[in-house]
C-alpha cells in the first residue's frame, strides 16, 4: 500500500515524460554546416537607419561567423504623396525626372542604407525595384495605404514606360556603387530584379517581366561585368502557376532571345524562389503547416535539377518563412499569434534542419535562405508581427539564429526515436506526435547539438525527456555548455507578460527585457565524464523548447 501511494505521489508531483533517445556519431560527417540561414530581409528599407534597425542589424552581424546578406524591398520606390514610411512601404527617391523628362539620380537614401550594411560587414542582396514614379507606365495612383485598408498594387508595380531609361537607371546605380564601395566589394554582392513577379507585385505580363529583367541585367553588366545577378524570386512553387513561371523564366534566360541585346540568352547566375508555410486556425487554435514550406523547397529543387545546364548553380530561397505576411499582426489575422513565443523559435529550428536534408537529397548548391523578418517601427509591444525584435527587444526566435551561429564545421548524422524525416512532414505534418530531433555539427574538438521539441499545434504541451548519446569521442572528459530557449530562458515575451504586458516600458523594465532577450545558459557549464568513448546527457525539454549543447574537449 505504501509503495502504491508513493507511485501516485510521483505521478502527480513529478511529471513522467516519454523518453526520446538521440544518438550522434562524432565520426559521421554528412556535409558542411553551411550557414545558409545568415540571410534576412524586410519590406521597409527606411527602418535600416533607425536606431532599432541599426541595433538589430548589428546583432545579426555579430551572431554570424560569415557576412550576413540583407535583402530589402523598395530601394527604388518614390515617395509620392505619402507622409512617410509605413507597413510594407518605403522609398528612396533615387530616380526622378526634370520637366523635360531628363533623369535625375539621387543616391542619398540608398547610400545611407547600403552604408549601414557595409559598416557592419554585411552584404546586400540588392533588389532592383520597385518602379520609380517617373518611370511607371501607370503612375497614378502611385503610393499605397495598405495599413489603413487601401489597395496595395498601385503604380509602383507597373512596367517601365521607357526600357532604355530603366537600363540606364540600373547602369548608373551599379556604376555609383562601384565608385563608392570599390569593385571588389560590389562583386561580392548579389543582385536581383523585382520580387514575386508571378503575383500582383508585378502588374505586367510574363514577357514584360523578362524584358525588364533583360534590360536590367544589361545595365548591370555594362557597369560591372563580374557582378552576380539572378532571379526570378517567384512565390511558392508548390502551385503549378508559380512553378511554371519559374521554369519558363529559366528557359528564357538559357535559350530565349534577349530583349535588350537581341542575342540568345541572358545572365542567370543564381536561382531565386520563395517558400512559405501555411498556418491556420483549427477550432480556435493555431496550427502550423511546415509541410507546405518544405514542399515548396522540394519542388523548386526539382525545377532546378530539371535543367542540366544549372548543375551547381547557387540557389537562394529569397523568402523562407512559416507564412506569407510579415506585416500582419495578430489583431489583423489571429492565426499569426504564434510569433512572439517559442512556437516560432522551435518551428525555425526544426524547419531549417529539414532544409539541410532537402539540400542533401537534391544535391543542390543552396547558398542562402532569407528569413523575411526584421523589426517594425512605431508599433505596439509584441504585436505579433513576424519580426526578430520588438521596440529594440529581441524575441525568442532571434536566439535560434544565435544558436545556429555557434554551429560550425561539418554536420554529423543524428538518429532520434521521435524524429520526422522531411517526406513525413510534407505528407502528414507534425500532428500525431511531437517531433523531438536534433542537428549536430563538429569542428575540431568542438561539437554542437541543437535539439528541439516541436509540434504543429500551438496548444500542444507534451514535454520530453531527452537521452542524448554522443558516440566515438576520445579522451576522458568533456566540457558541457547547455543553452536553452523555453518559457523561462531566452524569452523576453514571457518576461514582458510577467510585468503585466506594459505598453509604456520604463528604463528599468527595458533593461530587464533586453537581458531576457539574449541567449541564456540553462545551467552553469560543467565537466562530464566520457565512458567507453561515449558521453551521455539527460535533460527535460519543454514543448516548443530548444536546447543547444556545446561540447568541447581539451
Automatic annotation (TrEMBL):
Residues 1-18 form the signal peptide. The keyword Signal applies. Keywords: Glycosidase, Hydrolase, Signal. Coiled coil: none annotated. Residues 21-517 form the Glycosyl hydrolases family 39 N-terminal catalytic domain. Belongs to the glycosyl hydrolase 39 family. PANTHER family: ALPHA-L-IDURONIDASE. This is Beta-xylosidase. The lineage of its organism: Bacteria, Pseudomonadati, Bacteroidota, Cytophagia, Cytophagales.
Amino acid at each position: 500500500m505504501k509503495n502504491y501511494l508513493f507511485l501516485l505521489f510521483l505521478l502527480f508531483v513529478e511529471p513522467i515524460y516519454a523518453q526520446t533517445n538521440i544518438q550522434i556519431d562524432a565520426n559521421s560527417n554528412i556535409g558542411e554546416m553551411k550557414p545558409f540561414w545568415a540571410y534576412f530581409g524586410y519590406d521597409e528599407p527606411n527602418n535600416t537607419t533607425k536606431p532599432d534597425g541599426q541595433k538589430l542589424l548589428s546583432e545579426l552581424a555579430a551572431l554570424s561567423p560569415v557576412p550576413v546578406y540583407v535583402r530589402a524591398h523598395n530601394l527604388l520606390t518614390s515617395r509620392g504623396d505619402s507622409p512617410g514610411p509605413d507597413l510594407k512601404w518605403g522609398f528612396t527617391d533615387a530616380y526622378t525626372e526634370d520637366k523635360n523628362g531628363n533623369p535625375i539620380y539621387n543616391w542619398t537614401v540608398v547610400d545611407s542604407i547600403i552604408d549601414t550594411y557595409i559598416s557592419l560587414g554585411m552584404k546586400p542582396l540588392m533588389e532592383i525595384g520597385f518602379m520609380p514614379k517617373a518611370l511607371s507606365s501607370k503612375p497614378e495612383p502611385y503610393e499605397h495605404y495598405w495599413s489603413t485598408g487601401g489597395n496595395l498594387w498601385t503604380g509602383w508595380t507597373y512596367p517601365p514606360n521607357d526600357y532604355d531609361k530603366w537600363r540606364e537607371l540600373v547602369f548608373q546605380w551599379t556604376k555609383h556603387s562601384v565608385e563608392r564601395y570599390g569593385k571588389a566589394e560590389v562583386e561580392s554582392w548579389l543582385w536581383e530584379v523585382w520580387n514575386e513577379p508571378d503575383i500582383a507585385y508585378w502588374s505586367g505580363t510574363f514577357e514584360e517581366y523578362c524584358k525588364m529583367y533583360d534590360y536590367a541585367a544589361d545595365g548591370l553588366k555594362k557597369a560591372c561585368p563580374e557582378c552576380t545577378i539572378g532571379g526570378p524570386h517567384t512565390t511558392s512553387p508548390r502551385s503549378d502557376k508559380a512553378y511554371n513561371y519559374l521554369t519558363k523564366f529559366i528557359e528564357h534566360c538559357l535559350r530565349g532571345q534577349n530583349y535588350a541585346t537581341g542575342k540568345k540568352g541572358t545572365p542567370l547566375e543564381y536561382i531565386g524562389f520563395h517558400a512559405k508555410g501555411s498556418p491556420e486556425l483549427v477550432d480556435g487554435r493555431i496550427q502550423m503547416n511546415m509541410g507546405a514550406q518544405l514542399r515548396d523547397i522540394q519542388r523548386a529543387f526539382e525545377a532546378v535539377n530539371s535543367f542540366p545546364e544549372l548543375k551547381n548553380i547557387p540557389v537562394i530561397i529569397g523568402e523562407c518563412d512559416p507564412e506569407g505576411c510579415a506585416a500582419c499582426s495578430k489583431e489583423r489575422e489571429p492565426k499569426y499569434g504564434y510569433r512572439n513565443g517559442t512556437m516560432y523559435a522551435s518551428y525555425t529550428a526544426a524547419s531549417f534542419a529539414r532544409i539541410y536534408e532537402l539540400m542533401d537529397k537534391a544535391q543542390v548548391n543552396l547558398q542562402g535562405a532569407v528569413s523575411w523578418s526584421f523589426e517594425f517601427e512605431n508599433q505596439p509591444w509584441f504585436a505579433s508581427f513576424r519580426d526578430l525584435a520588438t521596440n529594440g527587444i529581441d524575441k525568442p526566435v532571434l536566439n535560434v539564429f544565435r544558436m545556429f551561429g555557434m554551429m560550425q564545421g561539418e554536420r554529423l548524422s543524428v538518429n532520434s526515436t521521435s524524429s520526422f524525416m522531411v517526406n513525413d512532414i510534407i505528407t502528414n505534418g507534425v500532428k500525431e506526435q511531437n517531433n523531438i530531433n536534433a542537428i549536430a555539427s563538429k569542428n575540431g574538438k568542438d561539437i554542437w547539438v541543437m535539439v528541439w521539441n516541436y509540434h504543429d499545434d500551438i496548444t500542444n504541451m507534451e514535454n520530453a525527456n531527452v537521452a542524448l548519446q554522443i558516440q566515438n569521442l576520445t579522451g576522458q572528459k568533456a566540457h558541457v555548455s547547455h543553452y536553452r530557449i523555453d518559457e523561462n530562458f531566452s524569452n523576453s515575451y514571457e518576461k514582458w507578460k510577467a510585468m503585466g504586458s506594459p505598453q509604456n516600458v520604463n528604463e528599468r523594465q527595458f533593461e530587464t527585457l533586453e537581458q531576457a532577450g539574449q541567449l541564456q545558459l540553462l545551467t552553469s557549464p560543467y565537466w562530464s565524464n566520457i565512458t567507453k568513448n561515449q558521453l551521455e546527457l539527460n535533460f527535460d525539454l519543454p514543448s516548443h523548447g530548444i536546447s543547444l549543447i556545446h561540447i568541447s574537449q581539451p
